[in-house]
Specification:
7 strands; 4% strand
Length: 355
Amino acid sequence: MSHDLRPHSINVIREGQAPSGAYVASPNFATYHYSWLRDGSFIAYGMDRAGQHDSALAFHRWVDRTLRGVAAKVDVLEAKAAAGQAIDPSEWLHCRYTLDGREGLDEWGHFQLDGYGAWLWSLMEHARLTASTEVLKELRPSIDLVVRYLTRFWDRPNYDTWEENGDQVHPATLACLYGGLRAVNRSLQSPALDETAARIQAYVLDHFVHRGRLTKFADGRSVDANLLWVPVPFGLLDPQHPVVQATVADLEKRCVTGGVHRYPEDTYYGGGEWILLTAWLGWYYVQVGRKNRAEALLAWIEAHADERGNLTEQVTEKVNDPSMVQPWIDRWGPVATPLLWSHAMYLVLREELNV
């Protein structure tokens, strides 16, 4: 049964926003009781697209306060890098924080750059959609901090979108950095930032294009649905670029079974179809004029809401490895529901389709 999930999605996100402004990744899934900069930046964008600008602004101000609290770490990192000294994994800025802005104490890998680029982009989109630059003046110290951090460390191996493969550089992460730096440079007008963005773009083209398509790793073997970020929304390559078209065709062949899987080898909760990635493919389809396909994916998402209208992280009806569903349930409980990022991307796709 399909649902009109727009009002419910807005409500889910508002209920999942702490008084601090942070968005909890999922309120009913203990492992996700953090606010990721990456998830939160896209959630804020979804709320901006839905006209909920106060919610988005509260998140951006939470990021600003959080970053001011850890700003001294960037000075240390820059000094160590300049001296050629090794950097301990614990010294990097974290990719997720507690809802009151503290660094988490868990043993997950913390070094993940995508959220910092996504935050710059999301903040600039907030300023554009609200036709206001006052927030950029208010948050300028944190903007400058993130620009310094990304400019210095963009090519370091770090964890990918899915908290995996910390020994690799990832094209989806580089797309976030490219998009964030390009967006903020509309305001800063720095030739050095333009040069860094150009280097990032060249790095992606030099290392991750194999047989005319983008791949998840530089070895040219696998694909990942987060490669959609390269064209949409970050514009590292145009959505109509032949490499992008070939990449999407490969994704459609290897990762789409109605909804969109993360990557063919995924076994997390069996490796099911992710709501947010399904919306992302729909977003891409809108950009290239395939509106009918986007509408079909929107309907698929609505049909997979639960009886309350909640959207899960992933649907486990069609998984890569059925034997891996129950072990994850035994370990962490049922799949995260609701996932705020899923609801946010649903809002984005609805706005793209003007429905």
